[in-house]
Design a protein that fits this description.
Structural class: mainly alpha
Helix content: 55-70%
């Protein structure tokens, strides 16, 4: 294979050269069959990301266990759509997350890490001479000059930053005119990554296009199918509380189609090799998630456990805070909408004004000495008892 002569000029090139070296190593062990090299590369990437997948699974298990408590909080504020109530509900849920040691953003880390890998792979696929063969920019410019010296490529524009087309031209020149690139470290056509499939019928260096109707158009179709079904299967295997939420049902269905269609759109603008890697990644990702679900299954909460969690939360919420009157007396309010709401200072209790009644009969008055200050329910029962007794005496 190609010898590495490139001295990386900046940190970005150095970081991209690491997966480039790995892909080059995969290409060597499969005998310069680039499609199989992409398969092994995708498998190794998933193995590297496995610790993050385990952490994501643990995070999802913890969230599933907290779901009953979260639903109890949401049930408490059901039917109230004002902004203040929504903020208070969110704060209460966040406080519960903090007490349980759950981080809602913990599941995003594996997704964020995959973006740099995709970007690095894009650069590797677009620049195989630089990142796989390790050719310097000067050597690539020399190759461009030699390729353009041949009549069939005299009017073709090549760039050092996107040299996958240049590599395809080099292969054809070596096959038709012999190797003229030995000075640039290319010993034979086998020194270049083999991006062809089925005896040259499919070139992974080419970009799928409707203008050139060939087997490459299968790549966007297979990418859509792989992405669509991998999302469906992963939703079944992973904990996803939003999938049972009717309010989110329409949004989830839209995302099931939008994301795969975006991947199809991307595959029409990049070499087919990147689409092939995407297909391999989706398939291996589903296998990995299935293994995690077997080794670390999601908890299946029974109805009794859900009710117990709601009762536990309601028991804590039902503890009404005591309010102090200016005189130092204590009482409990009969009207509690939110137990945690702050109540403004209450004025001193004064004797009610006597109201003249139109009828001769007057409602029985319960003396304050007979009422218990700290128990409202007993006061009400005593009041009703005296009232009923008065009625019996009259009859």
């Amino acid at each position: 294979m190609c010898g590495r002569t490139t001295s990386m000029g900046n940190i970005g090139d150095f970081l991209i050269s690491i997966p480039g070296w790995l892909l080059n190593w995969c290409n060597k062990i499969v005998g310069n069959q680039y499609i199989f090299a992409l398969l092994i590369f995708a498998f190794i990437v998933e193995i590297i990301l496995l610790p993050f997948g385990i952490k994501q699974q643990k995070n999802a298990i913890k969230q599933a266990k907290m779901r009953p408590k979260e639903m109890a909080i949401r049930k408490k504020y059901a039917g109230r759509d004002d902004q203040a109530t929504k903020q208070k509900m969110s704060m209460e849920i966040q406080e519960m997350y903090q007490k349980e040691g759950y981080n809602p953003m913990g599941g995003c880390l594996p997704l964020l890490i995959q973006f740099p890998i995709i970007i690095a792979l894009y650069n590797i696929v677009m620049n195989p001479l630089k990142y796989i063969c390790g050719m310097s920019t000067q050597a690539i410019n020399e190759v461009i000059a030699k390729v353009q010296s041949f009549p069939e490529y005299a009017n073709t524009t090549f760039t050092a930053n996107r040299n996958i087309d240049l590599m395809s031209a080099m292969k054809k020149i070596i096959e038709n005119h012999g190797n003229v690139f030995t000075a640039q470290g290319i010993e034979s056509v086998d020194a270049l990554p083999n991006l062809s499939m089925f005896g040259g019928a499919v070139d992974l260096a080419a970009t799928p296009s409707f203008s050139n109707f060939n087997w490459l158009l299968l790549i966007p179709v297979l990418t859509f199918l792989a992405y669509f079904f991998s999302m469906k299967i992963n939703k079944k295997l992973m904990y996803n509380p939003a999938q049972n939420d009717p309010a989110m049902g329409c949004s989830n269905k839209m995302m099931d189609y939008i994301m795969p269609l975006m991947s199809v759109f991307i595959t029409f603008g990049v070499p087919a090799a990147l689409g092939v890697y995407w297909i391999f990644k989706c398939i291996i990702g589903v296998i990995k998630q299935a293994l995690l679900s077997v080794c670390m299954p999601m908890p299946k909460l029974s109805e009794e456990e859900i009710k117990a969690a709601e009762q536990e939360y309601n028991a804590k919420a039902s503890k009404k805070p005591e309010r102090n009157l200016p005189e130092g007396k204590k009482y409990r309010s009969l009207h509690h909408i939110d137990d945690e709401d702050e109540v403004v200072s209450t004025p001193a209790v004064t004797e009610p004004k006597k109201v003249e009644e139109k009828t001769e009969e007057k409602e029985p008055v319960v003396e304050r000495a007979e009422l218990k200050e700290d128990n409202t329910e007993e006061n009400l029962r005593a009041y009703r008892k005296k009232f009923n007794k008065k009625d019996d005496d009259k009859n």
